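The protein record quoted for completeness.
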Amino acid sequence: MNQDPQFSRENFEWQLNGKIIIFALVLFPLLVLLGFWQLERAEEKRSIVNEFRTNQQAAPAMLDDLLGGQNHQYRSAWLSGELNGERRVFLDNRVKYGRPGYEVLEAMSVPSLIIDGRPQRVLVNRGWITASLDRRELPQVDSIAGQVQLRGVLYRNLRGGYRLDDGITTVTEWPSRVGWVTVERAAKLFGDDFYAYQLRLDADSIGALDTGWVTVAVQPEKHTGYAVQWFAMAAVLLLMTVIANSNFSRWIKSN
């Protein structure tokens, strides 16, 4: 009994195209690596968010709490001291509301904050202020005189991230505009010892400018979504490579 040719089954066969194979061998691992990288980023952001929630639930840190070695990242704090408005740092390239601006940082002397026999200043981030249209002019900021109690959140710069090389090693004129700042760099700029965390002021604290601090710019779920997209692209690439290098389409139709 003869089988109708239009219903005959076709055998699966490879028809290799060297250029397509090489392209796929290069791109497929890259797409997979990008997917796993986004999963790692999601886990990092998840840890940051969990750390924020845990320390935010703790009682506000006082002076005695700072002398211990525990983790204070994102913990609320009330600190009394005196800000030095004459030596001020403007952190450059801080865009907010689609407008260029600066974050304003000053050193605060805190009585009795002594670690390893050395007095520690606290780097205080007062918040954001819009930049002048003339780059040669720095904004005017009112100084805070006398002994004050400041309220804010303790923060240590996270690893990684982009840093603008401003070429500044020492400050010869105050106020100073810098491209990046950590408490370690503040020690070099100010010539003083600084506590390991800066204090980001709350919106209702004395001396606060425009605050509204962002814990993470991208939520963990978004990174997971990006990972799914990279893995999906890898799967599509694999399928398209098989189709381009075989009679896959005809084989599927015949079966």
Q: What stands out?
A: The first helix runs from residue 18 to 56. The helical segments are 18-56, 63-66, 183-190, 220-244, 248-254.
